[in-house]
Backbone:
């Protein structure tokens, strides 16, 4: 193994990185994480976020993100590529998204959140 000198300031960068790892672990802590893999989003560019489902009488009742107790949602937007965000942030984004019926028999109502909205805040303008 080759030995090299670390660049000046590496020790500070290492401490910063380690503190961010600890901060991340504290943030998710013992929170439940809802994991969602929307296979159509690779084609459509949208993630379906369920908000309601039909009950046995055919009435729509709150479900999905409206009833989730998870503090975080992990959304797979491509094979093994995930976006992790707080449920409240996803819910805020969904408020402005298009409402649609979904599921195999269209028995769910939800919002089509563009993947671009999920990653927009991470890009530099």
Residues:
């Amino acid at each position: 193994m080759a030995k090299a000198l670390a660049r000046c300031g590496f020790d500070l960068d290492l401490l910063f990185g380690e503190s961010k790892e600890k901060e991340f672990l504290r943030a998710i802590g013992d929170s439940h994480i809802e994991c969602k893999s929307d296979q159509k989003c690779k084609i459509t560019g949208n993630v379906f976020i369920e908000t309601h489902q039909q009950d046995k009488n055919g009435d729509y009742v709150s479900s999905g993100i409206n009833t989730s107790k998870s503090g975080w949602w992990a959304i797979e937007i491509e094979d093994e590529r995930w976006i992790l965000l707080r449920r409240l942030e996803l819910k805020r984004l969904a408020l402005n998204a298009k409402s649609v019926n979904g599921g195999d028999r269209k028995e769910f109502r939800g919002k089509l959140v563009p993947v671009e909205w999920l990653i927009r805040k991470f890009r530099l303008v």
Remarks:
- DSSP finds four helices and seven strands in the chain.
- The CA atoms of residues 114 and 120 lie 10 Å apart.
- The longest helix spans residues 10-28.
